[in-house]
Amino acid sequence: MPTRTEYANAGKYSYRCVIDRFQRWRLTATAFVDAEAKGALRGEWKDVVETIRSTPERRQVRQARWARKFMAAVRRSGRAPSLQTEPMKALKAGLPAPLAEMKCVTATMLAMLVASTVLGGGFLRRVLPDRPLLGEPMHTAALTHEPVNEMGVSMLFAMMARELGFILEALQPGFPDCRAKMEVLPGRWQDVRIEFEKDSRSFAEHGHDPKGCDMIVCWRHNWKACPKEIMVLELRKAVRMRAGRSGDRA
Q: Do 168 and 201 belong to one domain?
């Protein structure tokens, strides 16, 4: 049975309607089984019900922090993976499943964890709960870290707007987020309605009407079913292009 993230990546429809009705993703399965037992569903669903019942309940994320799992695996194996290889290759070579399949261990964090738990040096880094988590450094003067939410996307776009051929006219809390002028031809401008999203697929998850918006400005464009009439500006690529031009001038 898929998790909410798996369904969002592979499913055809948005999971938002399910969350709106059942509040939590895991409660959807219970509601489905109850509806099938009452005969409220058309068709034959016994195979789906059996899949739901045979799927073990997944642990909450807070009960399975990757750092604790990593350290426990190192202690069980009695040795640290080699740091001379890529982190994922080292994990697969030296640690038991399911850590071998993890994709969130960077080289820096791997080295620090091994130093703390196996070699007896260094210190164990921990997340400080009273301050925000930042994205990867972008090494730009305007904004130092990649945006991790919609607010960061809107701020970065405002900083780059003139360079990208936009003039911002109004920002609002309702849909769409922004009204601007866009240079569509050399020296020629038009009105454009913009919605900010961290990931472009969130546009559908938030239930926005594509007819009420001309453009999505996002950090990552991952909405495969995005209507062709909506323009999408992926700031991640724009930042990389600007960094490349700066490197050429240097």
A: yes
- Choose one of 29, 58, 87: the last residue of a domain: 58
Residues 165 and 213 in one domain: yes
Task: Specify whether 244 is located in the same domain as 173.
Answer: yes
Q: How many CA atoms lie within 13 A of 35 on its CB side?
A: 13
Residue 133, in any domain of the structure:
no
Is-above-0.70 flag for pTM?
A: no
Which residues lie closer than 8 Å to 3 by C-beta, 6 or more apart?
Answer: 25, 58
pLDDT in tens, the chain (250 residues): 788 888 888 888 888 888 888 878 878 888 888 888 888 888 888 888 888 888 876 654 443 455 566 566 655 665 544 444 444 454 445 444 444 444 445 655 665 555 555 545 555 566 777 777 777 777 665 678 899 999 999 999 999 998 889 999 999 989 999 999 998 888 889 999 999 999 999 999 999 999 999 999 999 999 999 999 999 999 999 888 877 655 544 3
In a domain, 140, yes or no: no
Whether 130 maps to a domain, the answer reads no
Which residues have a Cβ under 8 Å from the Cβ of 122 and sit 6 or more positions away? 112, 115, 116
Where in the sequence is the domain holding 68, given as residue range(s)? 62-117
